[in-house]
Amino acid sequence: MALSYPRPHRPNPARRLAAAATTALLAAGVLVGCSGDDGPQRTLDAFLAGWRSGDLQAVGMIDPLGAKLPSADVAREIKDLSGELAATPPTLTRRGEPKITKDIATTTVQVEWTLPGQTRWAYDREVRLAHGDDDQWQVIWEPTVVHEQLTKGDRLALRRDVGARAAVLDNAGKPLVTPRPVVRVGVQPNGVADLKKLVKDLDAAFKAIRPALVPGVDLADLPERVAKAEPGAFVEVVSLREEAYRQIKPRIYDLPGTKFISDKIDLAPTREFARAVLGTVDPAQADDLAAHPDRYVVGDLVGHGGLQGRYDERLRGGPGLTVVVERPAEDGKLEPTGTELFRREPQPGQPLKTTLDVAVQNAADGALRGESRRSALVALRISDGTVLAAANGPGPAGENLAFNAQVPPGSTFKMVSALGLLDRGAVTLDGPVDCKKTFTVDGRSFKNSDNFELGSVPFRTDFAKSCNTAFAALAPKLGGDGLAAAGRSLGLEGQWDLGTDAFTGKVSTGGSPAEQAAASFGQGTTLVSPLAMAGATAAVARGHFEQPKLLIDPAPATPAPAGEQLKPASVEALRTMMREVITTGTGSALKDVPGEVYGKTGTAEYDNNPAHTHAWFVGWRGDVAFAVFVERGGASTASAVPIAERFLRALPTT
């Protein structure tokens, strides 16, 4: 009997290729068409998936003459042709079914690149496939598959054109930052006689500039940079405004090796001009590039801090992009061919219009210029609440204390306490209130500056002379929430929208009798910013609260509503007392300042040591209300009041 054996199974090569293609497509997340196994669609879809993934092993490739090509070589050539776009392969979409003529199938494919800034560049290409003798479809490869203008060896490259950065405008609609003359100070290595001495002399000269450069010029790496530079190179040290350069020109001009180049740079009117509010514009830093690799490249100008940082995208606009073709030269270096494949024009930025007034800001900056301690001055127009100036010192650096400080207001808060007491009928201008040397509440003793006492005097005198013990004794008449209610009527603790960060205050409420006594003259847990106190002062002068305004365009979306009218009798009495602070009280140093000045001094303890105090002055003249703050300034009459005087004397009169 003959034995019968089953025939061995021999895998079909075509089925093996199709299975491999299917595996590759599934791995790439591509949906394979539903046509038959013998059609060109599967091979085409496998090719499109392999183009994106960089793996074409599942696809047969031939050149236009029919010669077979290694799939790995084609994948490598696609990557090379893609050049600077290789890291972000295009999205590839088959448009319709292949058209088959004899043994050639032709399909239109949309190639869509996503360029930096989410810019879309899309175009159609034809992909051809040939049906081979082995009954398999193979892709006919040539560089024009990627783009019709590409040939072997070409590379796609990106060129980026930065749009014009828009200006930050003042209240007259004029740019605050404009091209201003500077002198670029540098060193030419082959002219240096003694590098160590040169660094020392330059350092001493830069430190002599007034107002001081903040931050200072760091020369630590200058010797290394000089050593690495070409002998005749210009090694830049710093760019100085002309006025700063002129101060030290006699000291540095003849130093061996120094070189100077006159130039113009976009700058604010002065180095310190509202700098903490406006922010700065600088070359992109490492953290900018790391945080936003799709937005910035080396050399871009980027806003940092203040309005420049917050509204950087609006101000900088959109960069222009051009896709060009490059080709290796004889030395292998890529050179442009002059062929442009795509262009997006740069979009100019949109300006910001602020309420800042150049003359008032200069007066504010000038008033702080001689102050070595951290300080701030905010000025508002009473009639409409616009911020005319926001200065921070010393120098141009530092945080925006003017808007964001959270510090006790000291006796400037007697303005708020007095309003609350007047509203409740607890005091009158001429009603007697005892000003004792000390006043004790729940075992806590309160005293006046320099331990003065006035005895039983009219309330207006207690206010003008800033008697702490009188206000501590009156605190129970405000009740647990009376002080906070008075503060809120002046805008404190409000939800303000200025288009930038600002602290609107936190007023003490409730608390023990000792806390209420302390809060009545601006101690305890009450905290404010200079902007908040300037807003409250303007509300007293105006008769109702208006939220301070800094930005006109774009206008903030949700500004705080205007406050209710203050009680006329109360606010008129308060204004009378604030005038008497100047004529007979603690602000009498300002009584010979031109115009009718109103105000209130303040000294605020900020820790458990009574000798550690901040200094304040709030007030107004004409249509300008303002607040002055000096961190650790001691007595307000020695620091804050002189700053107020400098400001008022420099302030343009109307």
From TrEMBL:
One GO BP annotation of this record: response to antibiotic
Domain Penicillin-binding protein transpeptidase: 377-648
Gene3D superfamilies, per the entry: DD-peptidase/beta-lactamase superfamily, Penicillin-binding protein 2a (Domain 2)
Domain Penicillin-binding protein dimerisation stretches: 163-324
Phylogenetic placement of the source organism: Bacteria, Bacillati, Actinomycetota, Actinomycetes, Micromonosporales
Main location: membrane
Similarity-based family: Belongs to the transpeptidase family.
Record keywords: Cell cycle, Cell division, Membrane
NTF2-like N-terminal transpeptidase domain segment(s): 40-154
Protein name: Cell division protein FtsI/penicillin-binding protein 2
This protein's GO CC annotations: plasma membrane
The keyword Zinc-finger appears for this protein: no
Family matches, as Pfam families: MecA_N, PBP_dimer, Transpeptidase
PANTHER family associated with the record: PENICILLIN-BINDING PROTEIN 4B, PEPTIDOGLYCAN D,D-TRANSPEPTIDASE
Subcellular location: Membrane
InterPro entries: Beta-lactam/transpept, Beta-lactam/transpept-like, MecA_N, PBP_dimer, PBP_dimer_sf, PCN-bd_Tpept
GO molecular function, one term: penicillin binding
SUPFAM superfamilies: beta-lactamase/transpeptidase-like (SSF56601), Penicillin binding protein dimerisation domain (SSF56519)
